[in-house]
Amino acid sequence: MQSNDELSSGRLLQRSLLPQSIPNYLGLDIAADVWTAVDLGGDYYQFLEQPGILGVAIADSSGKSVAGAIHAALFKGQLDAFATQGRLNNPTNVMNSLNQLLCAANTDDAVALAYGVLDLETYEFQIGNAGIPGPIIYRGTTKTCEESVNPSMALGRYEGTAYRTLKKPFNEGDIAVFFSDGLYEATNTNGDEFGASTAKGISPLKFVISSLAHLSATKILTGLKLALDKFSEREIPEDDVSIVVIKLAQKVVMTQTRNCPYQEALQAWMRSDEKDTSALLRGTRLVEALGWAK
Q1: Among 13, 37, 120, 273, who pairs with 69 as Cys (CB 3.0-4.6 Å)?
Q2: How many Å apart are CA 286 and CA 237, to the nearest integer?
Q3: 68-71: which pairs have CB atoms within 8 A and are 24 or more residues apart?
Q4: Please, which pLDDT band fits residue 1 given cuts at 50, 70 and 90?
Q5: Cβ count near 9 (within 10 Å)
Q6: Cα separation of 30 and 32, whole Å?
Q7: Beta strand 124-130 with 166-169: parallel, antiparallel or unpaired?
Q8: Distance CA 105, CA 167 (A)
Q9: Of 33-37, 133-137, 253-257, 273-277, which gets the smallest average pLDDT?
Q10: When comparing pLDDT for 97 and 106, which is higher?
């Protein structure tokens, strides 16, 4: 049984792993959250960025209590190092390297990982999985959901485990939902899983994503939490759930935004539905923007 002090310390550490802000890219609508369970786990989500690349990681350490949160923190640090070194764009290489490092550490803890890399020029997702399913990708053209079936063992179990990369196009109107297994494996009173297909051929999870697809990423996130609570008949999940929703509203040519001195202000203006006049350029920033536009 975890003491209140352990839970409090662990929760603070777990929250410290999360990004302080959500990445802003023209044409992308992104939302993320962690829905915590009673028992402390090692779940977290992470964004990794390098020029032209947006990486998304959902990780879950097998360790529990504070030890699991510490293990997750060390794992996050290694992923951050890969981002600094510009080594994000090949999930297979990333997972192979992480697996070797964890196996060499000779600990009992493993890390499950769902890792996706979005190329912001080609708008192609490269996806790697290690013990966590997904993401689920909603296709705007067909209004259907497809699962990324790419199973492999969690990192840190066996040094010789093979990991592979799936490539998926990401088009306007598409939505990618990354999640830890606490969402997929949540059960109702009959023992049915939220992510498992029913007799009708579609899982409750896919049905909810499809029904919310017309909404913003933040509202999709909120709707999924409400649907999970209703399905499981509990407001606090049985296991931690880390979740990231990425919706592609419009493809934007990278040359339109690279090195643009007013990109941040433009994004703030767009997010306010063109109502926040404080986001408008003035003074030196306006002069810089006009110079860049020439």
Answers
A1: 13
A2: 48
A3: 68/10, 68/40, 68/41, 68/42, 68/109, 69/10, 69/13, 69/14, 69/17, 69/40, 69/42, 70/13, 71/42, 71/107, 71/109, 71/111
A4: very low
A5: 16
A6: 7
A7: antiparallel
A8: 31
A9: 273-277
A10: 97
Name residue, tokens 């209004």: 143
Highest mean pLDDT among 49-53, 75-79, 212-216: 212-216
Neighbours of 225 (CB within 10 A): 17
Cα–Cα distance measured from residue 58 to residue 83, given in angstroms and rounded to the nearest whole number: 15
DSSP structure class, residue 130 = E
Candidate ranges 34-48, 119-133, 187-201; pick with highest mean pLDDT: 119-133
Coil, strand or helix: which one is 236?
A: coil
Query: Rounded CA gap, 146 and 135, in Å?
Result: 9
Per residue in 45-72, is it b (16+ CB within 10 Å) or e — as a string?
bbbbebeebbbbbbbbbbbbbbbbbbbb
- Tokens coding 206: 């896919």
Q: Are 31 and 271 spatial neighbours (Cβ–Cβ below 8 Å)?
A: no
Q: Which two tokens mark 112?
A: 């499950």
CB neighbours (10 Å) of residue 96?
A: 17
Instruction: Give the amino acid at 144.
Output: T
Q: Which residues contact 57 (CB under 8 A, 6 or more apart)?
A: 45, 46, 47, 48, 79, 113, 114, 115
Q: Is a pLDDT exceeding 60 seen at residue 91? A: yes
What pLDDT digit, counting tens, does each position of 234-243 carry? 888 887 889 9
Q: Is 276 left (phi over 0), alpha (psi -120 to 50) or beta?
A: beta
Dig out the tokens for 137 from the structure.
């990708």
pTM (whole model) above 0.90: no
pLDDT tens-digit readout, 9-27? 555 555 666 788 899 998 9
